[in-house]
Amino acid sequence: MITVALLHSIVLGGGRRVVMADLRAMAEELGYRNCRTLVSTGNLVFETERSPAGDIERALEAAFEKRFGKHVDIIVRTGSDWLKLAAGNPFPARDGSEIAVRVMRTPLDESVLGLLERHRGEEKIAVVDGDLWVDFGGKASGTRLLSALTTKKLGIGTSRNANTVAGLAEMIG
Question: Residue 64: which H helix or E strand, with range?
Fold first, then answer.
């Protein structure tokens, strides 16, 4: 089974970051095969036996903490689920660097849109299959919405821009 794993953060503190070769090696030590990364932001694609996503998340998180000395939330999706996520982009005509999806461990429901409304400016937001898509309409760094897109407010998840989502979909095939 092809699997995608997304690290919430690759920053270890003290100016140190996870090197993708070390991340691939960690996954291989867990018995995952054909481990590949995309860009240097904690995107891992690998093959494994069919297993619940939660089991893979726990195994990766425990191995990460043991190897790097820090807990990092890791979100896992099957390859087919990732392809569905990529195809579900509600803003496909826009520049992929201006679109992001917050991939959630526990799916969000539509009610989150009302909670985010007071933080939203010109951004467009949509929940698709439990993940939150945002069209920033420009640079994300200039929006008040970012302060609401946190684990504390939404639950465990991590964001990737639409270009990264598409790149991972290409890696899966």
Answer: helix 53-68
